Structures are given as structure tokens and as C-alpha cells.
Amino acid sequence: MNTSHSGDENFLFDFDPRAVAAQILAQAATPLPTQAVRSHPTDRASAAGLLPDTLTDRGNAKLFVRLYANDYRHVPGLGWYRWDTTRWQIDEDDTVLWAAGDLATTDSRGLHSNQALHKHRRRALSTSGINAMLTQAKSAPGMVLNAALLDADPYVLCTPKGIVDLRTGLLRIPDPNKDFHTRSTSTGPEPVNEPLKFTLQNYITGFTRDLPLLFQGWFWLAVSLVLTLRRRWAGPYSRELRLLGASSLLYILAYLPTAPQSNFRYVYWPALAGTVAVVLAVASHAARRHAAADNAAETDTGPAAPPSVQAPSPKAPPPGPHEDSTIPG
């Protein structure tokens, strides 16, 4: 027993890392599958400047799209928008006109002569050349941004610190190809206590999972109709119950044409009014039951008899000093 234990200790202390490394290096390398060869674009930036694949307006447009697809987008009917690291802003300063950069005057590949490059450069840097390039670039795939996509998701909030998903409360880095926001808040979310955050998140998600009716507009609409259309509510809160039902009913009907779906944020006041009305109805019912129990107890025992009052008996006046109680014989 002791021998095996000492053998284990010797095995641990006799570990040689160099021998293990030599064994690993001696193993045959695992062959990797053939990797796809990535084709490089023909339009590129050379040491002498930007060089399109063809010396045409379309070649300049393709070069512009390749270089600035994540910086500029064109919205039909609205114009050019530029990415400011968090959202898409309308390009009021026409910075897109200066984004093409300086075109090359020499071609290291030898595809174009210097004379052709100089002629194309004069054309491309002129006002007509820039407008021709932007006219073709604004309709290129990847540069068109549909106006219907702008600020389309009501559950995503753009902030200076990132994009907040209102469904989960998570913060992520803005992506110009996914986040098409044009409006942003003035401040970003601040870090919160993580245990408290997860507690509140589980509290809300638990309610939506276990009691989904509380988050549906039609449920609170039915509650409002019951509160409003019932003829009479017994108890001292009949008027208050009808007012709460009428106000919540009008609130739901006002939001009904604009609400995209049944969601709790469109029925928060009907939910609050309905909850208060239920509390008042329960309190009124409990008060009536308590009063009925008191009346039943008085009926069973009967009314208590008032205490009898006896009139004081008249007392005979004491005899006077000159009166004799004996009758003379």
C-alpha cells in the first residue's frame, strides 16, 4: 500500500515537460482541408491614389460602393445618409461629395496609360463627374436603404453607448447593416446592480409566462366593459367603480387604431384602473358581508331590555317635638 503511494509520488515528480513537448512535435501534422482562395477586388487604393477597375463613371461608382458602403446609404426620396457610429444621419453637409478621395495618376499594373488616367481624373473630379458617379452609386446593391426600415423596430432603442434591446434589456454594439436608426437618446444606459436586474427581469418574465392574460389588451377591455355596463354596484364605491371602468374603456378605444399588437404598454392605465376597481369591489363586498353578519347576530339574540327604574317609596315624616305617639285614654 505504501509502495504504490510512493510510486505515484515519484511519477508526479518525474514528469519531464521537455519529453512531452518532443512527443507532441514528433506527431504527424493533421492535414487541413483545402481552403477557398479569396479573390481580391480589382479596384483598390494604390500608393498614387484610388484606382477603379475601369476608367468610367460606373467604375468610379463601384469603387465608391466598395469603400463607403458602411459609411453612406441613399434613401429614395430622402437623399444621402451617413453613419455616425451609432445611427444613420441625413447628410445635410453633403460630405458624400468629398468621400471619393483622390484618384490615381499612375497604374502600377500597366492596364491604363498615364494619359488615360489624367483624362479620367479630370473627369471624375469635376462636378459633372462626381454627380454621375453618385447617380450610379445610389442605386447600387448595398447602397439603397429603404425608408420603411428607418426606426421601424419599436423594441430597439438607439443610445450614444449602443443599441438597447427592450425585450431583453441587453446592450450591443451598433451595426450599420442591421440598425437603421435615425434618432437617438441624449444619454446612454448606466450600469445597474446585476442581482437586482436579474431579479426584476425574472419577475416580469415570470408574470408573462404564468399570467399571460394580464398583458393582453382584450382582457382589460372585457374588465372595463363589465365595470361600465353593470347597472348597479352594491356598496359605497358604486360611482367610483363605474368611473374607473369608463376611463379605462375610453383609453383602450383611443389606442385601438394605433396599437400594432396587444402589448402591456398600451393598456397600462386600464390594468391599473381595473386592479384598483377589483380591490374596491372586494372591499365593498367584505364590508357588506360584515354588516350582514352583525344584523343576523342581533336578530338571533333579540334587542336587549332596558334596565327597570323603580320609583322611590315615600317616607313618613318624623314626629314633631310636641307630638305624642300615644293616644290619651
Throw out a few tags for this protein.
single chain, 329 residues, 3-stranded antiparallel sheet, elongated, mainly alpha
Description:
- With 329 residues, the protein is mainly α.
- Among the domains are: 44-146, no CATH class; 209-296, no CATH class.
- It is built from 9 helices and 8 strands.
- α7 packs across α9 (268-301).
- The chain is elongated and about 120 Å long.
- 16% of the residues are buried.
- The model is unreliable at 34-45 (pLDDT under 50).
Residue ranges: pLDDT <50 for 5 or more in a row? Answer: 34-45
Q: What is the CA-based Rg, rounded?
A: 45 Å
Structural class category: mainly alpha
Main sheet, how many strands, which sense, barrel?
3 strands, antiparallel
According to DSSP, the number of beta strands is: 8
Shape field = elongated
Strand content: 5-15%
Number of helices: 9
Distance between the termini: 144 Å
Mean pLDDT score: 74
Work out the helicity level. 40-55%
H-E string: HHEEHEEEHHEEEHHHH
**Sequence of strands across the biggest β-sheet:** 3-4-5
Topology of helices and strands:
Elements: H1 2-13, H2 17-26, E1 44-46, E2 49-51, H3 57-68, E3 72-75, E4 79-83, E5 88-90, H4 114-124, H5 127-137, E6 156-159, E7 162-165, E8 170-172, H6 194-210, H7 217-229, H8 238-255, H9 268-301
Antiparallel strand pairs: 1-2, 3-4, 4-5, 6-7, 7-8
